[in-house]
């Protein structure tokens, strides 16, 4: 009964992942049936140490899953600002747009994750990209009643001008 | 030993429940 590399990554089992990688380094970029890599599982479950370990081993943070999900969108949706910043530090595309109709910023707004919104804006996330259904980050914040995020977005706009 | 398995990551539908703009 052994866990897959994806489950081990999600559960933060760094030493076990290291052991698996030493036997088969291709596991680093192994995508599951939906296209998710171990790095994406770790990002989705907020495993910061695992994310850093996998990046150090050379995991590609730019890989996207079948529906164009990325490690950055998963971390932004989960509100894991430390992982968001780690990924942004590795040159990922900050405005990846997936088939679910969202960018990392839109997911952070949707999840009411103020610090993630701030981190993404500070790194130049595009506030004009709308969701599939036509919601900009600002319109989404207003519609969801996420007042603090609305304020962060307004302050950011004021800073731009 | 009982293995605890995490469910596969998924992203929420961003505008679920909101009126279409």
Short description:
The complex is a heterodimer of chains A (about 160) and B (about 20). Chain A is mostly helical and about 160 residues long.
Walk me through what this model shows.
- The complex is a heterodimer of chains A (161) and B (21).
- With 161 residues, chain A is mainly α.
- Helices cover 53% and strands 0% of the residues of chain A.
- Chain A contains 10 helices and no strands.
- Chain A has helices at 5-10, 14-23, 38-44, 48-56, 71-78, 81-88, 104-110, 114-122, 137-144, 147-160.
- In chain A, helix 7 (104-110) packs parallel to helix 9 (137-144).
- The mean pLDDT of chain A is 96.
- Chain B is low in regular secondary structure.
- Helices cover 0% and strands 0% of the residues of chain B.
- Chain B contains no helices and no strands.
- The model of chain B has no long low-confidence stretch (mean pLDDT 85).
- The chains are: A mainly alpha (161), B little secondary structure (21).
- The A-B interface holds A 1, 3, 7, 10-11, 32, 34, 36, 40-41, 44-45, 69, 73-74, 77, 98, 100-102, 106-107, 110-111, 131-135, 139-140, 143-144 and B 1, 3-6, 8-9, 11-15, 18-21.
């Amino acid at each position: 009964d052994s866990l897959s590399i994806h489950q081990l990554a999600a559960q933060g089992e760094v030493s076990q992942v290291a052991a698996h990688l030493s036997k088969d380094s291709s596991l680093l970029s192994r995508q599951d049936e939906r296209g998710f890599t171990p790095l994406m599982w770790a990002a989705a479950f907020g495993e910061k140490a695992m994310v850093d370990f996998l990046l150090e081993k050379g995991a590609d943070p730019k890989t996207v899953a079948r529906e164009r999900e990325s490690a950055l969108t998963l971390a932004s949706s989960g509100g894991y600002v430390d992982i968001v910043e780690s990924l942004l530090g590795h040159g990922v595309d900050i405005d990846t747009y997936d088939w679910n109709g969202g960018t990392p910023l839109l997911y952070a707004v949707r999840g009411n994750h103020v610090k993630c919104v701030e981190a993404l804006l500070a790194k130049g996330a595009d506030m004009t990209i709308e969701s599939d259904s036509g919601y900009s980050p600002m319109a989404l914040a207003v519609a969801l009643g996420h007042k603090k995020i609305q304020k962060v977005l307004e302050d950011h706009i004021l800073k731009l001008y | 030993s009982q293995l605890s398995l995490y469910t596969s990551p998924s992203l929420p539908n961003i505008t679920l429940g909101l009126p279409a703009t």
